[in-house]
Predict the 3D structure of the following.
Amino acid sequence: MSNSRNHFLNNLASTKSRYNLGAGVPPISLYPQFKASEYLAEIEKTSGENLLNYHQTPGYIRETAATAIEVNEGISIDFKNIAVTNGVQEAIALILSCFRTKTVACLDPSYPGFEDAAMILGCKLIKLNLKTWLTDIEALAPESLLYLSSDFSNPRGSCLTEEERIRLAEIAEKKNFYIFDDATYRPFYLDAPTPSLYSINPERVIHAISFSKILAPGLRTAFVYLPSSLAPVFINNKANLSLNNSGITQALIEFWLKSNNYQLSAHLGLAKKRLKENQKVLQRYKIDYNGGFFCTFELDKNVDYSFCDTLLKREQIAVLPMQLFSDNKLYMRQLRLCIANVDNEDLETVLQVLLNF
């Protein structure tokens, strides 16, 4: 597979098509308006000059980040073990830079931003079979790194059960390895959330949350909650690779969080209403979906890039083959659908076209 998959996905996000179920684009039109100019006007009254200067490498709103995880997850954390990064993608690259001489692993299929960054950095990458991964990780070398999304993973949209989370945390402790939990889609539970992996073992789990999906991708901001043993090297690597985050963006995020009582998902009511309506459509087609942005759809024939390209040209429908995320032949008939940015009527139309195309 190409090393430019993230570049391809980013371009797809800005592609104009009638039905874009290809890119993980958030339904920003359903969120309360993010009034950046008004927020900045208020911020400049008290800290305008500071916004334009250099800032400490790990971020100057770490105490705000600590409050956010306490409010949303009930977890108290020393703010010194938090870093603010330019999205979760930078967090992925930084954590991989901490494990360049170690083994890194992910599930198959997995988010290409992790796999491709691991290849660029020259990491030893192992891809784990979905059916046996919870057993296979027993063989990971000490001080390895496992990447996954325990809540609504990209590309499959799946979640770990509470039992799987507990078992995974136990194995990580026993075998002395770390877990990077990409929690980008965690705020999009449609029912009560499962306890976070980080809450089970914070000294083995890196918990990364993004504001790209719950506010806007253009903010390029994520909070990374680190085990105390990893925080110093992670922050040191950030100092050498990206120095610090924009003070302007950090100020905007902090102002928004304080204005919303540090809640990460309370403003997502309309978006979740759409997702619940889409869930009903998917259930009629026997497609498993419980939240997040993604689901998989299996056809009775192989689907590849050519199929998706023709579909886009003829029907103005953008979807992705699971071939983008895995070379495993088990997924040759599957598509990844991002359902967050279409309503239930459009989703029904798309599924009918896919079945008859």
